Amino acid sequence: MAGSEGDDHSFPSLPSRLDDDSSPAVSVIVPVMNERRTIGAVLAQAKRVHPSTELIVVSNGTTDGSDRIAARMGAKVLRCAHALGHDVGRSVGARAARGEALLFLDGDIVLPAAKLRPFVQAVLSGAADVSLNDYSGPTRRSRVHPVVLAKHALNAMAGRDDLRGASLTAVPHAMSRAAAERIGLEALAVPPLAQMKALDAGLAVQRTAHVDVGRRNRRRRKRERANPLHRLITGDHLEAAVWLAEAQEPRNRAGAFPSPAAAGMQEERPVGATEERSGST
Fold it and tell me: Is 26-226 a CATH 3.90.550.10 domain?
């Protein structure tokens, strides 16, 4: 089966929920939009992440049967008749999750379970509230992608240069249920905003492991070239920057973060662009 590279059939010693047998330790949340070629392999690996795992698939306007494949594999499928936008599915899935740790994946990026477990382990062990993919995007080139620049800039604004370009926009990532509720489940629909809320709340946010998702999804990059979605994602980072500036203003009267009006910030969204967002940029 695709995606079995590097996987084994033994489970490392991970903490489990022992107080409530009806609740899984891990909820794996996978938004899906017409990914029948990959969703089976994605879920096959996801269910091997931990012995106590539930699969939640958010069918985001799917018309190719991806939702039926997910249901056959034992996933709880939340069906949305119309496309809500890629990241909105994360928020919807998190609302239905019962696990102690929430692991977020994409339906078109197959990753072996062995690469997913460190993110879950970091959360279940208490080492992190939010466990990020240590993926900063390609930076050693003459022209760096605007989204990559935005990730680095936003973390720097928050005083977390150590995170570099690690971001909730990139899968895989995980967080505790408590962290998700502290951030606000609705904020998960805008990953950069969710990340700033986590940092501002003092949650333990860390780079856990490097998974190069940029090389794993050439089909999505072709789709983005036809539709400048990077402007939408950059707009999400701008929204997060404005929120951070306003949140820190009462605590920082010295003006380290200028007001959005003073900075001349204005969100740009291209005419005709959809609300779908990439998780691999």
Answer: yes
